[in-house]
UniProtKB/TrEMBL annotation, chain A:
Annotated keywords: Membrane, Transcription, Transcription regulation, Transmembrane, Transmembrane helix
Protein's name according to its UniProt entry: Zinc-finger
Lineage: Bacteria, Bacillati, Actinomycetota, Actinomycetes, Streptosporangiales
Bilayer-spanning residue ranges: 145-171
Top-rank taxon: Bacteria
InterPro entries linked to this entry: Anti_sigma_zinc_sf
Automatic annotation (TrEMBL), chain B:
Pfam family, one: Sigma70_r4_2
Family stated for the protein in its record: Belongs to the sigma-70 factor family. ECF subfamily.
Species this protein is from: Nonomuraea maritima
Protein name in the entry: RNA polymerase sigma-70 factor, ECF subfamily
Domain RNA polymerase sigma-70 region: 36-102
InterPro entries per the UniProt record, alphabetical: RNA_pol_sigma-70-like (IPR039425), RNA_pol_sigma-70_dom (IPR014284), RNA_pol_sigma70_r2 (IPR007627), RNA_pol_sigma70_r4_t2 (IPR013249), RNA_pol_sigma_r2 (IPR013325), RNA_pol_sigma_r3/r4-like (IPR013324), WH-like_DNA-bd_sf (IPR036388)
A GO biological process held by the record: DNA-templated transcription initiation
Length: 310, 211
């Protein structure tokens, strides 16, 4: 309060916030009714609120957003290697980045793959097991994660298109001669009965094209124009509905993460692991696509989403 | 004006709630936390930028805050909205930063002088001018008043929501706002008078202008 007659800004601001006791508030109001200078101060206070409210609040600049993402990725990484207790699906791309086989092993694998007559990791009709083809160099890190992958496979039945007996994941085995350790046969009747009714194929109703090449993708290949890879693959049909649902679930998860429209999905493998390759239009006119490689069980990224060409 | 922190900044409410995402993060989903960040980073940025008044400082504070939230996720008890919790971490990161730089409260006449010193170049647009002036003025308030004014007057949160974020009683928020506004009034009235020809920001001003 300044002098006996006028009130200072703080009292007036407290009046506006209803913080004064009833008696004081009454006296200040009576004074305001007859005092122009104090009325002007009150208007100044109101103007403060208006000016503050009208001040624009800009969105986070891209550079800051990237910085935050990077810091969080580093945090996640240190947590993983520090073993601080979070059970996380490994980020293959992080784990395997700069690993020698990412580059050197690719050419031979890429060439060998298309000729392969039988699905990888499959129990053939005669009951024999065809081991998944794997790079002969295998990291200890990666083997560590084989068990959770098997557990996931047990929970979700994935049925192939051409082969009657179905799903198998192989763990361990440092090279192709290594004995497969686990086979998870899934009832084949579902597959064959579904095959007889291709008209029921739910894929036709989808906004995106689902194929089932069972191709074993490498990072190298995913950098090349994808239409050649995804385009010619047989359309998925007669597949177990749960498989289709699973694809739909992952498509929706990917689309939610990226905010882009998924237009093509291929069921295949990524470096020997079952994977869905999900393509979304980044810029359709420029034929640029975002490529997500996710595991078909939990829809988690097996590598960092990347830009590619169609 | 009164959008509570619980309201997502995007127009449509997402199918997965923040709490679900946080739980997924605690359970090891490596993407859940970045979804939370994407949802709220613009708000957090605005709070930090306005509270600290400096983009570099704000970037550091927001980064610290998100990393800290990432680490502390398991301690989130669900007694408040996730957004309230995030705001709290961001505001605390800002206040920490201010304290470390030992910003002292300044006297009123000092405030006015400083605001005049930092008066922006005249060739800038009025909006930017106002924005810079507001930033400069806010910077001269004590941290607790600044944080309260940013949340209530700038971000438009209710006093109750701001009280939750700041973990003080509503009355304390009101009194911090009142004291902060009282300090800003002489500075921003200078702004208001200066721009009166172009822009009238109060009924009283309109009265003055229209005779």
């Amino acid at each position: 309060m300044t002098g006996d007659t006028h009130y200072d800004l703080e009292i007036l601001a407290e009046l506006a916030e209803d913080l004064l006791d009833a008696g004081t508030a009454q006296r200040v109001r009576e004074h305001l009714a007859v005092c122009d200078p104090c009325g002007e101060l009150l208007a100044d206070l109101a103007a403060v609120r208006e000016v503050l409210a009208a001040t624009p609040t800009p969105a986070m600049p891209m550079g800051v957003a990237l910085r935050v993402d990077k810091a969080l990725a580093a945090e996640a990484e240190s947590r993983r290697s520090g073993g601080l207790g979070l059970v996380e699906t490994p980020d293959w791309d992080e784990l395997m980045r700069d690993a020698p086989w990412e580059r050197q092993a690719e050419p031979s694998r890429a060439e060998a793959q298309p000729e392969q007559p039988v699905r990888l990791g499959v129990v053939a009709e005669d009951g024999s097991v065809v081991p998944a083809r794997r790079s002969s160099r295998r990291s200890a890190q990666r083997r560590r994660w084989a068990m959770p992958a098997i557990a996931a496979a047990a929970a979700v039945a994935v049925v192939g298109t051409a082969v009657t007996a179905t799903s198998l994941l192989v763990a361990g085995g440092d090279d192709q001669s290594g004995a497969p350790t686990v086979a998870l046969p899934v009832e084949s009747s579902a597959a064959s009965s579904a095959q007889e009714e291709p008209s029921r194929s739910p894929a036709r109703a989808l906004a995106y094209n689902v194929t089932n090449s069972d191709h074993n993708y490498s990072n190298h290949e995913l950098r090349m124009p994808l239409e050649d890879l995804l385009g010619p693959a047989p359309a998925m049909q007669g597949t177990d509905p749960s498989g289709v649902d699973q694809v739909a679930k992952c498509v929706s998860a990917v689309s939610k993460r990226s905010g882009l429209e998924v237009f093509a999905v291929d069921q295949g493998q990524y470096n020997g692991q079952e994977a869905l390759v999900v393509a979304s239009w980044k810029q359709r006119a420029a034929q640029t696509v975002r490529v997500d490689v996710v595991d078909p069980f939990n829809c988690k990224n097996l590598r960092k989403p990347a830009l590619g060409r169609w | 004006m009164n959008s509570p922190p619980e309201t997502p900044s995007s127009a449509e409410r997402p199918a997965v709630t923040d709490a679900e995402l946080l739980t997924a993060h605690i359970n090891g989903d490596p993407h859940a936390f970045s979804d939370i960040v994407k949802r709220h980073r613009d708000r957090m940025w605005a709070v930090a930028l306005r509270t600290l008044g400096d983009p570099d400082e704000a970037a550091d504070a927001v980064q610290d805050a998100f990393v800290s939230a990432y680490r502390k996720a398991a301690t989130f008890r669900g007694e408040a909205a996730v957004t309230t919790w995030l705001h709290r971490i961001v505001v605390n990161a800002c206040l920490d930063r201010m304290r470390r730089k030992s910003v002292r409260p300044v006297a009123d006449d000092e405030l006015i002088e400083a605001a005049e010193r930092e008066t922006p170049m005249p060739d800038q647009t009025l909006e930017r001018e106002v924005s810079m002036e507001v930033s400069a003025a806010l910077k001269l308030l004590p941290g607790d008043q600044r944080a309260a004014l940013v949340l209530v007057d700038m971000m438009g949160y209710s006093v109750e929501d701001a009280a939750q974020v700041l973990q003080v009683p509503s009355g304390t928020v009101k009194s911090r706002c009142a004291r902060g506004r009282a300090k800003l009034a002489p500075i921003l009235s200078h702004l208001r008078n200066r721009s009166e020809a172009n822009r009238v920001s109060s009924a009283k001003g309109a009265e003055l202008r229209d005779g």
